[in-house]
Amino acid sequence: MIRSEKTYFISALALLGLYFLPYLLLGEDAYVTIHDNLDSDFLYLHILKISRTAFAMDPMAVVPNMMNGIPRAALRSGLNLEVVLFYWLPSYTAYVVNLVLIRLTGFIGMWLLLRRYLLTEPSWALIRIGIAVCFAIVPGYVVHGISVSGQPLLLYAFLNIANDRQTQKDWLIIGLFPFYSFLVWAGLFIVIALGGLCLYLMWTQRRFHVRLLIATGLLAFGYGISEWQMIYSFAAKLYVSHRTEYDYARLLPKTFVHCWGKSVQLFSDIQYHCGSYSTRWIRGTLVVAAIYAFLHKDGKALRRLAACLLLIIGICLFSGFYRFPAIWPGKGNLLQSFQFDRFYFLLPAIWLWLFALALRIIQQPRWFLYVLVLGQAGIMIDANHEWRVNLRKLAGRPTPGFISYRSFYATEQFAQIRDYIRQPQPAYRVASIGLNPAVSLYNGFYALDSYQNNYLLSYKHAFRNVIAAELAKAPRIRTYYDAYACRCYTYVAELGMKEAAFSCGKNSRSQVKHLVLNTAAFRALGGRYLLSGIPIQNTAINHLKLVRVFNDRTSYWRIYLYDVL
User: Fold this and answer.
1) Residue 253 burial (CB count, 10 A)
2) CA–CA separation, 279 and 162 (whole Å)
3) pLDDT for residue 213 is more than 80
4) Facing residues of 433 across strands?
5) pLDDT tens profile 15-34
6) Is residue 271 part of a domain?
7) Across all residues in the chain, what is the average pLDDT?
8) Among 27, 218, 280, 459, which lies 20 to 30 A Cα-Cα from 411?
9) How far apart are the first and last CA of the chain?
10) HSE, side-chain direction, 13 A CA sphere, residue 317
11) In total, how many domains does the chain have?
């Protein structure tokens, strides 16, 4: 590395340090994304720790805290680095350490890839560092490990092997990648993509590349080892999953216009789990690069741009129109229960690789390239919603409506509830109304309601008996539950099913006036208490007794504790 690039590299690390700073200074008072994070994937890692099942390797093991026990194989493997981090560190600390590791992996991986295979000359040092910083702060979900951020590093190792430049480090990267990513979200699609690249390279190089095939096999084998419990439980059919009742035909519009709209949105902004950011700046850069290539009669450059862009368009169209082939075999088929449309997890890295390729084609003037990189960096900063909320809070200008980690999980308040009940938490079950069930689960309560991507079908049916009358009053919620039910919540028709229905804070004026629960079915499941974020007016007909209201200054919630008689 030349001296100037070392300076750029260190400066980039310092900038990334500023990115991490709000999380470090605010601590648990920082805002952390709730949707599909604190309410689910983050929570699962915490539950594995407090339930002492993180490293349970028995395929028949269960996690007892949720839904009267869900299969251990349904959650992240104990061989995954994230599980290890959350087991040994306090959960918020583990989240921040995970954040740092993932962002640094993205930065170093993209820098190495560009330095060796696209922007190779020393004169490109600042630009490749700038693009690497942009990729490092792609606002993907941290709880997916390096499923997205690790892709450039993985491709770097893969291309080293393809070009006979491999070292032991490259094999180590490929071998360890599955143990810090997740097969279901991205791993399968990465293996398929690299398998396709392997065949393409062998075809273009006109040789049978044994090492390349071994590298692809090693990656697939690594996922087989890291996720062996999940794979074995699926192959051996150890339990019947609620996913076997997925019914896209009832859940999703089946029109060309809607599917096209989803494809366009994916092309414009990417999907939020893997890292949503606007691609408009890159698309504008592509137009400029195409004009440059056309004027210079560079057909090879045009073909490379077109090939990369067509790959992106193909992924977007496949994902947008995936529901059509998925519904043809009927409800609960493998195409629905596994969701093979997640090739969009490849898009954040492909778009920035395409951006670098476009800059390579434009080449001059160099100041113009710097402006383009700065513009893309600005888009990335704007896309990092969580970070911007925390930065404003750190500056003394908090954004209303964004709940901090501490306020959301309200550990002091729920400790008061636990102490008031004065029974061992495994001895009774709770459910939540007006607040997310993740809160009680985080605090060690055994909850009948939960957000789970994979649990027993029999439990879905059993819990439905509890809320059947409420589902009957709300056709939209009924369809959602019967055809999906990952959010197996205590739905209340008059509250609806939007996230606000499960986020009724202490300042909420909502009340539940017409609740109809099957409390006999609730008690049959072991239920004893309802934790409600808002008052329930018709307690008598539901056999409920308000025993106490809990307030805490650090909590977002006011909790009404009801005994189910």
Assistant:
1) 11
2) 30
3) yes
4) 532
5) 999 999 999 999 999 999 99
6) no
7) 94
8) 459
9) 71
10) 6
11) 1
How many C-alpha atoms does 282 have within 13 Å on its Cβ side? Answer: 28
What mean pLDDT is predicted for residues 467-480?
96
The residues, any chain, with a CB within 8 Å of residue 102's CB and separated by 6 or more, are 142, 145, 146, 149, 150
Looking at the domain assignment, is residue 390 inside a domain? no
147 touches 181 (CB < 8 A): yes
Range with lowest mean pLDDT among 186-190, 322-326, 331-335, 542-546: 331-335
Spatial distance between the Cα atoms of 357 and 340, rounded to a whole number of angstroms: 29
Whole-angstrom distance, CA of residue 149 vs CA of residue 135:
8
Least confident of 112-121, 324-333, 536-545: 324-333
The mean-pLDDT minimum among 18-27, 135-144, 249-258, 364-373 falls in: 249-258
C-alpha 513/C-alpha 148 separation (Å) is 46
**Which range marks the domain in which residue 555 is found?**
410-564
Residue 236, classified by CB atoms within 10 Å of its CB into exposed (0-12), middle (13-18) or buried (19+), is: exposed
- Rg of the chain on CA atoms, in Å: 25
SS3 485: coil
Reported as a single tens digit per residue, the pLDDT across 446-466 is: 999 999 999 999 999 999 999
Retrieve residue 340's tokens: 């093979």
Burial of 54 (0-12, 13-18, 19+ CB in 10 A): buried
Beta bridge partners of 503: 435
Q: Is the pLDDT of residue 558 over 90?
A: yes
Tokens of 226: 């890291």
Contact 149, 138 (CB under 8 A): yes
Compute CA distances 315 → 76, 201, 264, whole Å.
Answer: 26, 20, 11
Which two structure tokens, joined as six digits, stand for 321?
């129109």
Q: Is residue 474 part of a domain?
A: yes
Residue 314 makes CB contacts below 8 A (sequence gap 6+) with none
* 1: confidence class by pLDDT, cuts 50, 70, 90: low
Q: Would the pTM count as exceeding 0.85?
A: yes
Dig out the tokens for 377 from the structure.
């960096």
Asked if residue 504 is part of any domain, the answer here is yes
d(CA 171, CA 188): 19
DSSP string covering 310-355: HHHHHHHHHHHTTHHHHHTT-TT-HHHHHTTTGGGGGHHHHHHHHH
